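Recap from last week: sequence in, structure out.
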Amino acid sequence: MTEGGTTARSDLWGGAGWTGFGLLIVAASWRMERFESMGAQLYTMPGFVPGMLGGVVLLLGLVLMLRGWRRSLREAAAEPAERLINRRIAITLVLTLVYAGLLIGRAPFWLVTGLFVAAFVAAFAPEDQAPRRRLLVAVATGVLTSAVVTFVFQHIFLVRLP
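Predicted structure tokens:
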């Protein structure tokens, strides 16, 4: 293990995964209807924001891969093999799949988003943090994030949330 508890190998795999995910987002947003026949401009096309976000995910995935590659060149001693799915990745996958696959559309968006963010923050809070503080920070972050996201999408972007 190296700095931060990660290995160069996990950075390479993680970066490759994020790069692939970013490519999928960019490709899907590119295929979205552009409404050019209705006079839509670039910034009002439905795929613009997802495409930009996908591009950022793609770029950060490449940066992570580069970081892993550079670190692997610097590592002199061989490290024991690390499992591809570690505890943190498993928690992230479970929380995300429950949120996006089970809860979105079945409960109010603001509630589901607040619970997801709170659970995520609580799961990844520093382990030496007092349980009461961990819970307080998680709930506050979930409530604030849910309120801001709901407001921005409904009142600024005029998007009807599920």
